[in-house]
Amino acid sequence: MASRRLSSLLSRSISSTLSLSQGQGSGGLWRGSNRFSAAAALEEPVTPPVQVKYTQLLINGQFVDSASGKKFPTYDPRTGEVIAHVAEGDAEDINRAVAAARKAFDEGPWPRMSAYERSRIMLRFADLVEEHSDELAALETWDNGKPFDQAAKGELPLFVRLFHYYAGWADKIHGLTVPADGPHHVQTLHEPIGVAGQIIPWNFPLIMFAWKVGPALACGNTVVLKTAEQTPLTALYVAKLFHEAGLPPGVLNVVSGFGPTAGAALAGHMDVDKIAFTGSTETGKIILGLAAKSNLKPVTLELGGKSPFIVCKDANVDQAVELAHHALFFNQGQCCCAGSRTFVHESVYDEFLEKSKARALKRTVGDPFRKGTEQGPQIDEEQFNKILKYIKSGQESSAKLECGGGRFGSKGYYIQPTVFSNVQDDMLIAQDEIFGPVQSILKYKELDEAIRRANASKYGLAAGVFTKDLDTANTLSRALRVGTVWVNCFDVFDAAIPFGGYKMSGMGREKGVYSLSNYLQVKAVVTPLRNAAWL
Ligand SMILES: NC(=O)c1ccc[n+]([C@@H]2O[C@H](COP(=O)([O-])OP(=O)(O)OC[C@H]3O[C@@H](n4cnc5c(N)ncnc54)[C@H](O)[C@@H]3O)[C@@H](O)[C@H]2O)c1
Fold first, then answer.
1. Which end of the chain, N or C, is surrounded by fewer C-beta atoms within 10 Å?
2. Of 177, 105, 164, 212, whose CA–CA distance to 518 is shortest?
3. Is Oxidoreductase set as a keyword in this record (predicted)?
4. Shared-domain flag, residues 479 and 387
C-alpha cells in the first residue's frame, strides 16, 4: 500500500519536474517491474512506434530543402543504422532563416501583438505537444537513445510545463517607474532584443528547445534555432506544431546542420541580436569569439561540468548510494550537471563503495524502448570512443575499477555501468567531463577538505550534498562555488528554478525569472515634469 502511494506520488512529481529526491526507494525512477534479458533486448531492437515525418529545414513557416540540396544522416544509437536523412543547413540557410526572423521581428505581428495573445499561442502549442507526446517521446528515444519512459513520463511533461510557465510570464513583463533626482519622470521599458540565435546540444533535445525558445518567444523575440546534428528530429516536429497553434511565419525558424558551418554562421551573424548556446566549454569559447568578432551580440552559455556529490559522515548510506547513482548515471551519464565526482566521508566509504558497486551491477542496460530499461546507448560513436578512452585512462592510473569498464553487447553504443574507487583529484577521470556512465568515488576526511577539493575545478555548474545536519547543509551550500546546490536531492529541474554555471560552466542563467533578462533590453525613457513641486 505504502509503496503504491509512493509510486503514484512519484509519477505525479516527475510529470511536472524531473527530480530525484532522497528516499524514493531503491528501484530508481524509471524502473518498471518487468525485468528482461538485456542480451536479448540488444539482439532484437524494438521497432520504434513512430514514423519520421519532417526532415527539411523550417524557415519562414515552410518546410524547405537546404540551399545546397545536401542532406546528412541521423543515426539510431542502438544500432548505428540510419534513421533518416535530414536537410543539411549551412551559412546560406542561416542567412535565409535570419532574414525571415528579422522581417518577422521588424515588420511582423509577434512583437506587436498583445502579450496575452502571444501567451495564448504558447498555451495552444503546449496542448498540441501534450496530445502528440507519445509520438514525440518515441522520436526522442529513437534519435537519442534515452529510455522511453524517461522521455514520456519525465521529459515531455516537463516540456509542456516549461511552455505553460513561459506563457504565464508573457503578460507579466513590465518595467519600473524610477524616482530620479530633479524634475523628470523616468520609466523603464523592457523590450525584446530582436532576433535570437540559439544553438542546442543532443543530450536533451526537447528540453533544450523549451529552455531556449520559451523565454525568447514569451518576451516577443523571433528565433533561429540550430539543433545538434546528432538529434535533429524532434525540434522539427514541435516547431511544426507551434505553427499549427498559430505562430506567425518567421517567428521560429529551425535549421538542422553542423556546428562549424551552420552554428558558426549563426553565432557570427551581423543581423542576430543575441546568441544562446548549450554544449561543451570548448565550443562555448568559439561562440563567444564569434559574437565578439561580429556585432558584439550578448551571449549566454550553458557549458560543461564536473559536479561534486558530497556524502557526509551522517548519511543514510543506502539512500546516499541510490541518489549518487542516479546523479551520475541518469541519461546514460550525458548530463552537464552529472554528479561525476562522488566524495564520500572515510567513515562510510567502504560500505558506500560496496553498495554503489552492487547498484551499478544491477543497473538494467538495454533497448531504451523496452519497459524497465534504465540505461540505453550513448549518443554516437564519437562519444562512445571518448568514454572508453577515459575508462582506459582510469584503468592505467592507480584508481581501482570496481565494475564495468567496457562495451555492453556487440551492437550500437552501449557501455557497461562503470565504477572507479580510489580516485585521486589529479586523475583525468576526476578532472574532465566524461559525459558517460562512469562513476568516480573519492574519499575525504574533513568537511573543509571536501569543500576545497570540490571547488578545485575549472567548472562550477552544480553540486549534490547528502547530510542530515542542517548546519553542514548550510555551510556546504554557501561554500561551494556552483550555480545549483541540491541538498538531499539531485536533478530537480522545475521550470521556475534558475540553472547556470559559475566559472567555466557558463555565463547567465536559464529557467525561472532570471532567464527573461537574457531576452530583454531595458530602455530608460526620461520626460521633463513641468510642475514637480508636489513631488
Ligand atoms: N553542457 C551540455 O549540456 C553538453 C551537451 C552536449 C555536450 N557536452 C559536452 O561536449 C562534449 C562534446 O559534445 P559535442 O561535440 O556534441 O558538443 P559541442 O559543444 O560541439 O556541440 C553542441 C552544439 O554546438 C554546435 N557547435 C559545434 N561546434 C560549433 C562551432 N564551431 N560553432 C557553432 N556551433 C558549434 C553543435 O553543432 C551542437 O549544436 C561532450 O562530451 C560533453 O562533454 C555538454
1. N
2. 212
3. yes
4. yes
Q: Is residue 336 in contact with ligand 1, taking CB distance under 6 Å?
A: yes
What's the chain's Rg over C-alpha atoms? 24
Query: Residue 463 maps to which CATH number?
Result: 3.40.309.10
279 Cα: distance to centroid of ligand 1 (angstroms): 4
Residue 33 has pLDDT above 70, yes or no: no
Tell me if 500 is assigned to some domain. no
- Alpha carbon nearest to ligand 1 atom 3, residue: 336
Tell me, using a 6 A CB cutoff, whether residue 267 lines ligand 1. Answer: yes
pLDDT of residue 22: 39
Q: Are residues 65 and 106 in the same domain?
A: yes
Atom of ligand 1 nearest to the CA of 258: 37
Tell me, in angstroms, the distance from the centre of ligand 1 to residue 348's CA.
37
Cα 503 to Cα 505: distance, rounded to the nearest angstrom: 6
Which whole number is the average pLDDT over 287-295? 98
CA dihedral 187, 188, 189, 195 (to 10 degrees): 160
* pTM summary value: 0.93
Cα(303) to ligand 1 centroid in Å equals 9
Work out the average pLDDT over 22-42.
Answer: 36
Predicted complex: ipTM over 0.85: yes
Taking every pair of Cα atoms in the chain, the longest distance, rounded to a whole number of angstroms, is 84
- pLDDT (mean) for 249-256: 99
* 379 and 256 both lie in a single domain: no
Is the CB of 201 inside a 6 Å radius of any atom of ligand 1?
yes
Total tally of structural domains belonging to the chain? 2
Q: Supply the pLDDT for residue 273.
A: 98
**208 CA closest ligand 1 atom index:** 3
Average pLDDT (117-132) is 98
Same domain for 242 and 175?
yes
What is the Cα–Cα distance from 511 to 215, expressed in whole angstroms? Answer: 8
Residue 23 lies in a domain: no
Mean pLDDT of 198-225: 98
Which protein residue's CA is at the shortest distance from atom 27 of ligand 1? 259
The verdict on the CB of residue 228 being under 6 Å from ligand 1 is yes
Instruction: Examine the domain organization and report whether 321 and 235 are in the same domain.
Output: no
The number of residues making up the chain comes to 535
Ligand 1 pocket member 77 (CB < 6 A):
no
Ligand 1 atom nearest to CA at 379: 16
Question: Is there a domain that residue 269 lies in?
Answer: yes
Q: Is residue 70 part of a domain?
A: yes
Assess whether the C-beta atom of 260 lies below 6 angstroms from ligand 1.
yes
Ligand 1, residue 304: give the atom nearest the CA.
1
**Residue 534: what pLDDT?**
56
Protein residue with its CA nearest to atom 13 in ligand 1: 280
The residue segments making up the domain with residue 513 are 57-303+509-521
299 shares its domain with 353: no
Stretch 27-48: mean pLDDT, rounded? 51
* Secondary structure element (H or E) that encloses residue 276, with its range: strand 274-278
pLDDT of 62 higher than 80: yes
Q: What is the pLDDT of residues 353-395, one digit of tens each?
A: 999 999 999 999 999 999 999 999 999 999 999 999 999 999 9
Going 27 to 30 to 35 to 41, the CA torsion angle's sign is negative
Average pLDDT over residues 400-429: 98
pLDDT given at position 530: 85
Instruction: Let me know whether 254 and 320 are in one domain.
Output: no
Is residue 302 lining ligand 1, measured as CB closer than 6 Å?
yes
Active site residues: 302
Kindly state whether residues 104 and 221 are assigned to the same domain.
yes
Ramachandran region, residue 253 (left: φ > 0; alpha: ψ -120 to 50; beta: rest): beta
